[in-house]
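A protein record pairs a chain with a discrete description of its three-dimensional fold. The shape at a given residue is found from the number at the same position. Here is what such a record looks like in full:
>
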Amino acid sequence: EFGIFIKNLLLPFSIIFIIDKNTLNLNNLIRNFSVFIILSSIPFILNLIPQLGSKYDLSLFGDSKNIGSFTGLFQNPHGASIITAYATVVCFNIFKYSRKKSEKYFMIIICAIGVYLSIITYVRTGLLMILVGLLSSTLYGKSFANFLKFIPIIIALIYLSLSYISNDSILSNRLSGINKYQDTYNVNTFSSGRIDIWKSTLVSFTQNNNPIEIIFGLGESELKSRNKENIGRPYIAHNGFLDILVTNGILGFIIYLIFLRKWYILLRHKLKLLKINNLELRLSISIFFMYISYMLVQGGPLVYDSLFIAYSIVIVSKSITMRENYHNTF
């Protein structure tokens, strides 16, 4: 539990670390960090140095050549996939708003590498986050006419994605959840057993009808212990919202929802305040919705995502404050 406590402190510490930086420094920080995450993968892809983390076992999905999944600098494929997704969408937004041709070319190359890395992790969460990040950055808060402009691009991306998946049986099986022990498709297979885990987690939460547990939660260790009794596996819920409800109770869950609401209100306030969109707003919107998608299908505190979340909160808060101070002055 102490390790989880330390991870949860990373967000407030990240906010404290960057809160005194100006907009230019914040943008450079998130840009350079994102580029580093993606470029640091190249020596691993070229097999110049061994990957640091444990690979995902793809033999279940038809990997007879022991290809394995990409981890790079990270401890496991899930961490690599999620952080690479954030970095890829950051670089996509910089590509959209940069006025320098050289930077646009550089960023589109970085984005392509980022998407490739997300694919070879064989983790669906990262791919979902990239999709959500691109759609929210491009479409959220814009008119239906603006949406229509992007329909050809969306159709082309869907076609290319389906073509690639159809030619990669391992990826196709991984996305659908079909493996050598489960050759029929259903919702639980597609969710990698998440439906059963969610049911077990809710049963674990309410099985004793203990008001102390319901108000203050079970804690992660107790949740894993009860899930092991129920389904034979010591899992957390694999849904961040459900995890927070069960491990921190109704009280902790309400506090968490207040945090999300405040964050979203900041974004909506800035969207209404600005007559035009800018890099900081689009980046912040992307990070918010990517985080929500991550919490829906995976959840749990990570290390590096704290910096992206802190950027989104701080940069929007600074922009609103500067704008309001300007209007108050004049």
